[in-house]
């Protein structure tokens, strides 16, 4: 009887695994299709330009990228670099959802695995598997991602919260709702600029951190990875391009450690801290900087 139960359980497990893989393949194809559609829209954007559509794209871009992705998904949720009141944390995470880079739990899980396995075979998106793999191809290979990293068991802090579970289940509806709202409000110009142009710029800006910033740039800090500071990506991605800074001090809410390193999310965090809304804001100490400084270590040698 026990043997029979074991066989039935094994078959059930295999069936669930098969269905899970089919579901992942389906969503990979959906993502591929949406990115292709996004870039087709980008080609038509000049023919549908209006100033109102431009300002809609710019406003949504600011809300979803430096605030939604960099400040919320990256520094607040992934690294807990500072604390926010729950209402504000949830609002900023909702902005991040509309950057169309995945729901908060997915994004945070992938990023935490990136730091855990950085530039090894288990890194979700390292250029050691090729530049274009790290830039964009990894997005469509989630079965491969599962095989390398396993399931998202590194985000229990988010899984415990009903809000993030809700966003995971319904994120596609929110994106479709925004697209519909833009079309109703301003027709094709608002839809193309508010979705296609904004998302294409945002996607490649974020993807460049994974690819360019692990390939070209300067390394002021001795880290055990390929991370680099790239000033071009630093400006394009609102401060995320100071990537060697980030890998040296991943706990830090500030990525642009030099006065000239533009870091828009950090300025917003400082404002929130001044208003008493951001607390426990973490930055590296001078002792920590000295420990990782490549210049000091070269001098000591």
Give the SSE layout.
Elements: H1 2-44, H2 51-78, H3 86-97, H4 104-116, H5 131-135, H6 142-149, H7 156-159, H8 162-211, H9 231-236, H10 243-248, H11 264-274, H12 286-292, H13 294-300
Helix pairs in contact: 1-8, 2-3, 2-4, 2-8, 2-11
Summarize the structure.
By secondary structure, the chain is an all-alpha fold.
Description:
Its cofactor is Fe(2+). One of its GO terms (biological process) is very long-chain fatty acid biosynthetic process. This protein is mainly alpha-helical and 301 residues long. It is built from 13 helices and no strands. It has helices at 2-44, 51-78, 86-97, 104-116, 131-135, 142-149, 156-159, 162-211, 231-236, 243-248, 264-274, 286-292, 294-300. α1 (2-44) crosses α8 (162-211) and α2 packs across α4. The model is unreliable at 5-19 (pLDDT under 50).
Shape: globular
Would you tell me the structural class of the helices and strands? mainly alpha
* Sheet having the most strands: none
- Count of runs of 4 or more consecutive helical residues: 13
Key phrases:
lipid biosynthesis; 13 helices; single chain; fatty acid metabolism; oxidoreductase; transmembrane; 301 residues; membrane; mainly alpha
């Amino acid at each position: 009887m026990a043997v029979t139960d074991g066989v039935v359980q094994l078959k059930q497990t295999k069936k669930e695994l098969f269905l899970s893989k089919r579901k992942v393949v389906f969503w990979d194809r959906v993502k591929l299709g949406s990115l292709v559609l996004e870039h087709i829209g980008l080609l038509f954007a000049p023919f549908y330009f209006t100033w109102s559509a431009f300002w809609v794209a710019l406003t949504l871009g600011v809300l979803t990228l430096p605030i939604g992705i960099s400040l919320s998904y990256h520094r607040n949720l992934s690294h807990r670099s500072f604390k926010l009141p729950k209402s504000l944390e949830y609002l900023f995470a909702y902005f991040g959802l509309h950057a169309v880079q995945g729901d908060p739990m997915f994004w945070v899980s992938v990023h935490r695995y990136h730091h855990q396995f950085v530039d090894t075979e288990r890194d979700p998106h390292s250029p050691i598997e090729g530049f274009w793999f790290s830039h964009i191809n990894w997005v469509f290979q989630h079965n491969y991602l599962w095989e390398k990293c396993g399931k998202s068991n590194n985000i229990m802090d988010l899984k415990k919260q009903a809000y993030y579970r809700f966003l995971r289940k319904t994120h596609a509806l929110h994106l479709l709702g925004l697209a519909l709202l833009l079309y109703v409000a301003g027709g094709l110009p608002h839809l193309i600029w508010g979705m296609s142009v904004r998302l294409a710029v945002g996607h490649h800006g974020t993807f460049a951190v994974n690819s360019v910033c692990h390939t070209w740039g300067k390394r002021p800090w001795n880290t055990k990875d390929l991370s680099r500071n790239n000033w071009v990506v630093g400006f394009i991605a609102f401060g995320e391009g100071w990537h060697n800074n980030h890998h040296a001090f991943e706990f830090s809410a500030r990525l642009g450690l030099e006065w000239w390193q533009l870091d828009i999310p950090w300025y917003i965090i400082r404002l929130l801290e001044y208003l008493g809304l951001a607390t426990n804001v973490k930055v590296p100490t001078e002792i920590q900087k000295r420990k990782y400084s490549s210049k000091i270590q070269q001098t000591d040698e």
